[in-house]
Amino acid sequence: MADTYNIIISGEGGQGVLSIAEIIAQAAWLQGKQAVCVPYFSTEKRGGISMAFAQISDRPIAFPKFRQADLWVALSERAVTRLESYLKAGTTVIVNSHLVKDLSKLESWQPRIIDATKIAKEQLHKPRTFNMVILGAMLNFVPGISKEGFAAALDKQFADKYARDPELKKLNQQAFEIGYELIKK
Amino acid sequence: MKILSINSRPMSEKNFLMGNEVLGRAARAAQADAMYGYPITPASEIMHFWAGEAGSEAGHDQGLVFQQAEDEIGAGFMLIGGVLAGRRAFTATAGPGHVLMQDAFAMAEAMRLPVVAYIMQRGGPSTSTVIYSQQEVTLACFGGNGNGFRIVYAPSTLQELFDYGLKVFNTAWKYRFPTFLLGDGYLAKMLGEVELYDPAERGLEIVPTEPYLLEKKRGIDLKNVIPSPELEVRYSDGVEYACLRNCLNMEEETLTVNQEIKAAWDKMAKEVVEHEYVGQSAAKTVVVAQGIVAAAARQAVQEASGSVGLFRPITLNPFPVEALRRSVAGAERIIIAESAYNQLGRMVKDALYGQVQVPITEYYRPSMSILPEEIAELIKDNVAV
Amino acid sequence: MPEEMSKLEIRSALPKCARLDSKPHLFCPGCGHPEVLKALGFAVDELGLQRRIAFGVDIGCSLLAWDFFDFDTVETHHGRTVPVMVGLRLGNPEAIAVAYVGDGGAYAIGAGHLLNAAIRNDNILTIVVNNGLYAMTGGQEAPTTHPGWKVKTAPYGADQYYIKAPEIIRNVNPAAFVARGITSRQPELRQLMKDALQHINGNHGFAFLEVLSQCPLNWKTMDSAEATFRVLEQEHAKLFPTGRF
């Protein structure tokens, strides 16, 4: 990896934007990469746009923010309108189609569409797996993290949670696989 | 997020942690035993962490003190009370809270009380944003109605949050000045790799604290640490009593207080002042930056071609004047970059007045991040080859 | 006059813990502070607490008590004596922490700290000397100024609003020691001081003692002790009833 791989997650407060960024960053770190993530938020802790910046690299990362994203994940409509300045020609765009209806501005980036909300609710019956579905989709693009490596990282990060709720591990794995495969098509 | 065992002091190991938690752990590693605070974004997690520590079984056993005060003024003065009781005490604040703390910090400055604060700069002035800036430099160094005798460290990475988060306590109690760690909202909220360690493993000794009031066996003579017009020690029935004040009557008393503080400050400065220089020595282009912007500048300078260097003050106060002057000895251009208007700039110009005749590029972006690319562009724009 | 009394005579008129060589004190002639301080000192003597007291004074006339006693003392910023003593007591659970403040420091600038310390039941004793105005700074209106009193910042008469603090403290903290005394009744005041100190010494929590006091200088009754005591005992004590709450 020449430079840092830059990821932006954006959505409504409460959608798990920061969690997704933290999970992917820490997963990369557990696999031996350098990683940093930082949230970006307005004064209203509730009801505002939520954004998180994550970077993955082979060398130490100097600054937690960057100009242009290699991967941009938009989870809500409002997130789309604000963030075009962070996109460059080759940015991979993943969009949660459940909430993002107007894709006209993003056409040139050929966004990958995934209705993570629907999958989480109707296929998995647990809205909270939303994050995992998105992470699965993302993993198609984030360099340096294998599926196995990611699963192992999750085992470490959620060790306490899995100990209390063993079902969660299976569920996460399912959600992740669905998200991963959906994008491959 | 993985949390280390609360009961143990951190052993040498790498972790993936948020900046505020790193600071909480640094305080624990330094054997801090009291925190008085008030919630304010982006510093609140430091207090949450400490509340967890103090309320745990181990915290109870160790007698850790935690109190959330009614406001930052209350927190600042409770902090003074804790220090007077001999606690290795600290607080954490930001922005408008930092403004309110200046009432207490002014008293601490006048009486040379070793209060410690972690300050995580956010937008300003006023409430502004909760995110980031470098606009509290002047406030941290020169706030209150005094002459700016507070020691201020400006860490630039998560690792330095731990290293200096530890160090502030020793500096405060050894030299008896209010001592602050001046971070920012990005450092506070970013997650990344940090190596935690037990200072004893690295040969770092913890400077002991001692009560100012109700001390039965005084190890230190209060006359050496409190300006004389503010202290009266007397004996009654063989018992020593100490009376401390900050209200004075005559101009001469105030002059004496300031002179004594300054004398102690100048002595301390020689030992405490810290800086970092990166890049070519006697560089023709010297970038000056502090805190997280210095991290960005470090990368830009390391990747730049040509005769470029970075001068980074680590202590903003006392400012490393001599080191800066030496660093710019061969400079044909100086670039100052900060996320504020002229707060670092002012200090640089003050240090260099009469010393250099080179153009200074002032890159001021109040509340905005400054990326490595931006500094690289500044360097390229007219780098002196 | 001190020159005419023997040291022994002076000594017996003052508490043992009072510092002799800072006498005569710096309070105005006829001021109520020395009466409050004496009552406190005698109570401290009787309870044997001299070496355990951390004595905090505010900015205002109370700062003149800075060297009144042989106590460990700290003068704080205006209105901030309560949080300093709260922080100190939390840091040293053996300390007898006493905040000695005026009505301005306690009920205006320091009101937030005072109310919250009471709500938290912090284990400190707060003594508030209530003379109905800001005395040290020249007689401005205070939260305790009587309606209609003419003071420097209300030259046409102070408004109808004033604060009755012990009543409020009792409302927010049913367990605290709460009382209002008066300088003109020393034996009662000394007893109140003892009971208040015993409350915090026994770790029972917040103790609050307001003492009605005279300020002949700003009350403009310097010429007549009778006038001073009339204002104190008839006007002041009428607006602020003494007693235990």
Task: Write a structural description.
The complex is a heterotrimer of chains A (185), B (385) and C (245). Chain A is of the alpha/beta class and 185 residues long. Chain A has a single domain, classed as Pyruvate-ferredoxin Oxidoreductase, domain 3 (3-Layer(aba) Sandwich). Helices cover 39% and strands 20% of the residues of chain A. Chain A has seven helices and six strands. In chain A, helix 4 crosses helix 7. By secondary structure, chain B is of the alpha/beta class. The radius of gyration of chain B is 21 Å and the shape is globular. In chain B, 39% of the residues lie in helices and 21% in strands. Chain C is an alpha/beta fold and 245 residues long. Chain C has a single domain, classed as Thiamin diphosphate (ThDP)-binding fold, Pyr/PP domains (Rossmann fold), CATH 3.40.50. In chain C, helix 2 packs across helix 7. The N and C termini of chain C lie far apart (39 Å). Chains B and C meet through helix 4, helix 5, strand 9 and strand 10 of B and strand 2, helix 3 and helix 5 of C.
Give keywords.
heterotrimer, B: 385 residues, alpha/beta, Rossmann fold, 2 domains, seven-stranded mixed beta sheet, five-stranded mixed beta sheet, 13 helices, 16 strands, 39% helix, 21% strand, globular, C: 245 residues, 9 helices, 37% helix
Short description:
Chain A is of the alpha/beta class and 185 residues long. Chain A is built from 7 helices and 6 strands. Chain A has one domain: Pyruvate-ferredoxin oxidoreductase, PFOR, domain III (Pyruvate-ferredoxin Oxidoreductase, domain 3, 3-Layer(aba) Sandwich).
